[in-house]
Write a structure and sequence with these properties.
With 169 residues, the chain is an all-alpha fold. Helices cover 94% and strands 0% of the residues.
């Protein structure tokens, strides 16, 4: 009777007396044999319940570990995806900056070329104007020289006419 009460709270203490309980099964007294069977049944139930509890704990621990592993894998995947997204965004920003810089350089080069073309055209126009002015001045000088020569020729002709006229008189 005392062993039945102890079995509920301290099953390992009762199991230490397993050999004695097994010997009681051979006793002539039927009540001793029945109590020994009750104790053995209680010991087996306690072992099985402990074993079931242990199995349940193991299953719970395994489930928790699996959940933790899944959570860690998901976190790692999310971190990797975030890193990839950040790298892609950085690469895109760098590409955009490079393209903008190239466009600015091209625009500056185009502006420089346009300015150079305008300067060359202005210089050519100035040169052409200067050439035209020089040609006009030369033509005017030639005309003045021709006019002076004509005037001198006319004067000489007049002088010759005067000299011939006086000689004839």
């Amino acid at each position: 009777m005392a062993m039945s009460k102890i079995l509920k709270t301290h099953p390992k203490s009762v199991q230490a007396h397993k050999d004695l309980i097994l010997q009681c099964l051979d006793d002539k007294d039927e009540s001793i044999r029945l109590r020994a069977l009750d104790l053995l049944y209680g010991m087996v139930s306690t072992e099985q319940s402990c074993s079931s509890s242990c199995r349940l704990v193991v299953v719970v621990v395994v489930v928790v570990v699996v959940v933790l592993v899944v959570v860690v894998v998901v976190v790692v995947v999310v971190v990797v995806v975030l890193v990839v997204v950040v790298v892609v965004v950085v690469v895109l920003v760098v590409v955009v900056v490079v393209v903008v810089v190239l466009v600015v350089v091209v625009v500056v080069l185009v502006v420089v070329v346009v300015v150079l073309v305008v300067v060359v055209v202005v210089v050519l126009v100035v040169v052409v104007v200067l050439v035209v002015v020089v040609v006009v001045v030369l033509v005017m000088v030639v005309l003045v020289v021709v006019v002076v020569v004509l005037v001198v020729v006319v004067v000489i002709i007049i002088i010759i006419i005067i000299i011939i006229n006086q000689a004839l008189i």
